[in-house]
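Escalation from tier 1.

The customer reports that the assembly of two entities below gives different structure tokens on two consecutive runs. Tier 1 could not reproduce it. I'm attaching the input and our single run for tier 2 to review.
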Amino acid sequence: MQLSLEQVGKTVGPAVHLYPMSLSPVPGAVTVLLGATQAGKTSLMRLMAGLDVPSQGRVLVDGRDVTGIPVRDRNVAMVYQQFINYPSMTVFDNIASPLKLGGQPRAEIDQRVREIASRLHIDIFLERLPAELSGGQQQRVALARALAKGAPLMLLDEPLVNLDYKLREELREELSSLFSAGNSTVIYATTEPSEALLLGGYTAVMDAGELLQYGPTAEVFHQPRSIRVARAFSDPPMNLVEAEAVDGGLRLRGGVNLPVDLPGEASRSVTVGIRASALRETARPGDIGIPGEVELAEISGSDTFVHVNTAQGELVAQLTGVHEFDLGAHITLHIDPSQVYVFDRAGDLVRAPRRQEVKA
Amino acid sequence: MSRIDLDLAHSYRPNPSQDSDYALLPLKMSFEDGGAYALLGPSGCGKTTMLNIMSGLLVPSHGSVCFDGRDVTRATPQERNIAQVFQFPVIYDTMTVAENLAFPLKNRKVPADQIRQRVGQIAEMLDMSHQLDMRAAGLSADQKQKISLGRGLVRPDVSAVLFDEPLTVIDPHLKWQLRRKLKQIHHELKLTLIYVTHDQVEALTFADQVVVMTRGKVVQLGAPDALFERPAHTFVGHFIGSPGMNLLEVEAQNGSLRIGDRVLPVPRPLPEGPLRLGIRPEYLRLVPLSEQGCLPGTVTRVQDIGTYFLVTVDAAGQSLKARLSNETAIPGMGSLVGLQILGDHTCFYQNEELVA
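Tier 1 run:
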């Protein structure tokens, strides 16, 4: 199913919720809407679903103008942050409800419900009522119902946000394999860059009611068009340091020189972006050192995020594994100069690190 | 400040007869004076029950709680001299920030000049010095929770400060600042701090020692690097790290290790019989199939996670994840690869417990 938004915008009274934007999510794939709260993700999904009518622009489904056609006359499945189930129906009947409306044979319905329930690990609760389940289990029932419907357009608005992180990890994995097995066009809103990367597919980065960039998820991550995209699409935040173009490269604020090739048209004063993962503790040949003091080491289990005070400002380094640092300890962070991003004065990307192509 | 010793069990129902009747299974453990501890686990694991038993809000159904060797099992929180910080701000809206911070000290009749000094010190640590004369009512939820933290930390003579998911209402950006503050404060004040959370980042960042719990049981008490490097229980391997540890069904037999239809040499002395082999995605290496002692597998998924690649490999009928640096060669989908699963970082489990 090809959904196309043509210059859609939404204003409510004097407030602009969405600036005019065009977006054609790749059919049959997952498109992640990534942005902070208030970026406009939910507003955009409501236009896609037909829950709201855009103030301007058109919504097309397979070339047909559906602007203004309400949600009940479209074939859409939605899942919200807050789970919604039919309280008086069993889990089985909740999941089966869209199939029953579709008039499918009983045996087929039964098989489909059990299959989806087992993928989401709720098959042991089929005879229970939603109120007898935990929050995480109820959300899985809502997800199972949306998946059972098999609608050509599936809209998921931060569906895992209220679950604990281990469960989120497992469900994300199950969901992405269910998505890739089906033909639905899936729109998935999240505030978390790591969730977008784990889901893969395509990502639309939003910020303050604007659509900033749309493309394959990894490409948007590695080639952010602007500082705004880079900021929205990095966790921990990309380190940004003011710099000046000098002979043979860049001089960072605080006086560290990086030998970097810049395109001829680049402005003299630029912003250098350094991903936390590009900074390391041990130098390799060609690396440039940036000395500083440890402010805090945050440990996520798989990684340690070290916050370091330097002459360039506060930098965050992501080190694999668990590392202990004393507060105030001296540390030198090392960077391969070819691994930096450079943005011009207007905030547009002028240089990105080279990356490895992998056939998926 | 005190050392806390627990030797107890707790059941919310009378006459517990099986493990599932217990909110806390029989346990014996000590919290050292001046340490920073986290109780970490999923909801329902018993961490809040343990905290409430330490604070005196709950009397355990079996056993005892001692503070510095003194039995306080039935003593109230006041008698135990405990300070507590909850998920949501507990403050007086009509008072100023300074009055709120001073309240626990005033209650204990601390001399005014000492109160002023201590309130100033705590406000300074929490970056609230400029807000001391403001009324709490006008502040945001974040700011109010900072006052709650300050009230918990203001008394220098408490036995321990107990935190129950104190950063739940805090916005993510402020969260890491507060984590840093708490760590610095622990450094400076050397209070005994006990912190309950289901968030591994909060637990591992805050605590010197983390108590990992599941189903009413403490499965490991250890420093953050021990939980990562040598998980004492398969649950810890799974729960710490994203994704968690790969766990493979294997069998040790007469000096060899059977994995599916492969037989590998035993890398170190192992108990005979069925075991689970644990290896973290960070340590699982992809090697040429020709390398000796490797397990052959097929790549079923390749994910570019931006700062690294996550590669899923099916081998010996099981699915494993490897985390590979952007700088290594990444195999394509469907490629045949070798997996090096034996190394210094490999752990072995029998009945879910670490044995080698």
